[in-house]
Every structure is written in C-alpha cells, then in structure tokens.
Design a protein that fits this description.
360 residues, alpha/beta, UDP N-Acetylglucosamine Acyltransferase, domain 1, 2 domains
Length: 360
C-alpha cells in the first residue's frame, strides 16, 4: 500500500500563528504535528508515503521530515496544482503516483489516539473498495456526516449538513482502491466550487464495497486553537511512559511530578515545580516557576517567576509574568512580561496581529 498525507491549506482559523508557519509544522509535544501522523502511518506498516504540500513548500517540508529514512520509509513531496479545489482534488492531484495501488488518505491535521493498523488490516482482509472511520462528536455539522438506512447500512455521506442525520463525523482517515479515480470523474464541484470527499464516499457507497468503524478513543481535527491544545494533550496521553526522559541534570530540590520529558542543556532551578505530563525542550531555563499538566515548551525558551499550564509554547519564547497563563498558544520569539517591568506608569503596550486573542 501507499499513503497520501494532505499537508497543504491556509489554516485561516489558526492565524496569526499560521501567518508564518505551515499548520502541519505547529509543534505538538514539541514535534511537528505531521511528525505524529507519519508515526501512525509507518506504525501501520505503510512505508511508501506521498505528502501533498502547498506550492513552493516542498523544500520547507523536506528540510523538516527528510526522505523518510528516520521511519525506514520513502517520502515524496508533491506540490498541489490547480489551486484549492477541495479535499477530493488533493487525491486526484496524486493520481499518477497512486494509480494501480490501494492507499491510505490521511488528512495531516487529524490526531488519533491509538493505532490505525486495525483499519488497514480490515480493509485488506475484506478486500474493500473503501473504508471509513467515524467518530461521535458534539458538532457534526462541521464535518462530513454519514446517513444510515433503517437496517444500519450506509446510505450516503453529507458534507457539513445544517441538520445532521447522525451524531458522527467522518474523520480524515480514509482507505481506497484505485476506483477512487473513477469516482472522482463522476462527481461535480459543490456549490462552494470544491470537489467534496463526501461525494466520493457516497459514490463508493452506491458503487462499491464499503466498510466503516467507529473510533472509540480520542480523535481530533486540529482546526482551531482549542482543538490544537486538545491534540497536544492527546499526544501526551498517547506517549509511552518510558519516552518521558530527562536529559539534563536537575537539582534534587526541584519538584518533578508525573511524566515529564526534559531535553538537553536545560536548566531548572530548585524553586520550581513541574507537574506532568509536560515536555520541555533543549536549552531552556525554568526559574521560580510552576509548569502544569499538558504544557509543551519549545527549545531555548525562558520561563521566570511564572505559572504556565495546558499551553503550547514555541521555541525561544520569554515568559516573565505573575499572571497565570493557561490554555494558550505562544509563537516563537514572543515575549510575555509584566507591564510594571517595562512601563511602570502607563497602561498595556501591545502589538497584536490579525485574528489574535488577548485577555487582560
């Protein structure tokens, strides 16, 4: 089998972070989001991988993930052609590489708890044309939603319905055979001008052998800041305890509780408390601070006299404030400091980009 991973798009809901970084490179547990997806794909035994990227971004992605040798795999980077024409068009863009193969199509912003191997094995064992993974969600109107007949069989998939016919979302994890390209040539763009993957799936329901399973654990489409934070927490819960290692010398007086991973050359002062699950990168400095559960701190960051919990802190961030920071995403080279340390006789000074959120 082959795998196609979608790693393009503009991620407008995650701006301003995504003004300067591809969404799929946002760090979750201090590794790029897409790194975890490649882990899932290769752990399921698929070593021939195509990553679909935005025009001009192939070299950027290649510099991060290489040729796949880290995973014992082969990675090809394929730039999207023809503009943003829908999820189904992403697969059509790779037809030359996928024709004649069964393949996994994985949206690169999807985070799942546990292995996808059982989906792959069932798809192959039952010789299915299409295999779908469903997840029960509280807001199915945001997704493609399966509609079932009275006997429980699949009737169709509807894209972002106003009145969802079921409480399930079709997750961004699909398995297809080469009939996909016949399906693509038999659908039309939707009202929003895109080739919808839901129409592809409905075509397979009408013309092929389709299987489905419910993801009973956690699944996240990391399309919003809140979902990113949940994905960051989800990955920590999915990380084996033996991978939480400490590679720096930590004073015996420092309080470390629960699973904590600390990189090289990081200095944590004795008057700090680290309560896991937490991941801290290389060359960081933590002084007189509390770092709470589900926090990731990137390389070269400095935290002084602060409390940080359930947050994603990028590389080279400075935090020096008595304000408690929670549920936050702080981009690289940013500074968060107390106003009294910079302007003791004035109000708050801010440089805030488009789509930012600030609470004072």
């Amino acid at each position: 089998m082959k795998a196609l991973i979608a790693a393009g798009g503009q991620a407008k809901r995650l701006r301003p972070i995504t003004w300067t970084i591809n969404k799929h490179l946002i760090p979750l547990a201090n590794k790029p989001m897409l790194w975890h997806v490649i882990d899932k794909v290769t752990n399921a035994g698929i070593k021939d991988i195509i990553i679909n990227v935005n025009p001009g971004e192939a070299d950027i992605m290649r510099n991060v993930f290489g040729d796949g040798s880290h995973w014992g795999a082969k990675i090809i980077y394929l730039e999207q052609k023809g503009g943003a024409r829908g999820v189904a068009h992403v697969v059509a863009n790779a037809e030359e590489l996928l024709r004649g193969h069964k393949f996994l199509f994985f949206l690169g912003d999807n985070i799942i708890l546990g292995s996808i191997q059982r989906f792959v094995e069932r798809f192959l064992k039952e010789d299915l044309d299409c295999m779908l993974a469903f997840s029960r969600v509280k807001d199915p109107e945001r997704f493609g939603v399966p509609e079932f007949r009275e006997d429980g069989t699949l009737k169709r998939v509807i894209e972002k319905p106003i009145d969802p016919p079921s409480p399930f979302a079709v997750t961004g994890i699909y398995l297809y055979n080469e009939k996909y390209f016949e399906a693509y040539r038999n659908i039309q763009p939707s009202e929003r001008g895109e080739y919808e993957i839901s129409d592809i799936n409905t075509w397979f329901i009408d013309n092929g052998k389709v299987g489905y399973e419910e993801i009973t654990g956690w699944w996240k489409d990391t399309g919003t800041p809140e979902a990113l934070l949940e994905g960051n927490a989800l990955i920590k819960d999915d990380t084996p305890k033996e991978l939480f290692t400490i590679e720096s010398e930590i004073p015996i007086e420092t309080q470390i509780q629960g699973p904590v991973k600390i990189g090289k050359n990081t200095r944590i002062c004795p008057n700090s408390l680290i309560r896991g699950p937490v991941v801290i990168g290389d060359n960081c400095q933590i002084e007189a601070s509390y770092i709470g559960p589900y926090t990731s701190i990137g390389n070269g960051s400095q935290i002084k006299g602060s409390e940080v919990e359930h947050s994603i802190i990028f590389n080279n961030v400075t935090i020096d404030t008595r304000k408690r920071i929670i549920d936050s995403i702080i981009g690289q080279h940013a500074s968060v400091v107390d106003v009294m340390k910079t302007h003791p006789h004035s109000g708050h000074r801010m440089v805030i980009g488009e789509n930012s959120t600030v609470e004072l």
